[in-house]
Every structure is written in structure tokens, then in C-alpha cells.
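Q: what sequence does this backbone want?
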């Protein structure tokens, strides 16, 4: 997982949803993952799409992510790399 991507998403979660970017980053480093309220991911999708010029399908977030920060970052990374073409 790219450190820059982790920090960007963690900062969005802090700025928009009030979750702690420091907590998220520390738990990723210490435990490899952390739980985030799934609704928070949905709240930042629009800004991530605009910022990164990508399409993040809500159904993929529901299907693959649940409340896993790591899984959300992996999904975004795959979209950025073009591994999966989501419509």
C-alpha cells in the first residue's frame, strides 16, 4: 500500500468526517489495518474522485471494503493502477 495514498485518505477522513488521521496511520503501521465507519468512506468518495480523476463505484465499496481502511486503500490503488475497470 502506498504511504502517500494512505496519508491522503486518512487526511480526508479527518477533514471531512472528524476521524483521526494520526490514529488511522498509527494503527495501519502497528496492526496492518484499522476499522473506519463504512459511511465515512462513502462521504469522501466524491472528493477522492474529483481529486484523483477516478470513478469509485459505491457497490464495490460495499462489496469489498466494509469497515477496513486497508481494503479501501487497496480498492483505490487498484482503480488508480487501472487493474480493474469499474463503470
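A:
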Amino acid at each position: 500500500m502506498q504511504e502517500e495514498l494512505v496519508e491522503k485518505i486518512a487526511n480526508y477522513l479527518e477533514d471531512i468526517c472528524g476521524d483521526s488521521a494520526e490514529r488511522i496511520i498509527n494503527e495501519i503501521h502497528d496492526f496492518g489495518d484499522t476499522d473506519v465507519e463504512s459511511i465515512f468512506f462513502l462521504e469522501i468518495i466524491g472528493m477522492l474522485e474529483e481529486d484523483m480523476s477516478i470513478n469509485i463505484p459505491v457497490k464495490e465499496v460495499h462489496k469489498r471494503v466494509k469497515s477496513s481502511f486497508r481494503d479501501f486503500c487497496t480498492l483505490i490503488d487498484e482503480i488508480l493502477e487501472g487493474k480493474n475497470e469499474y463503470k
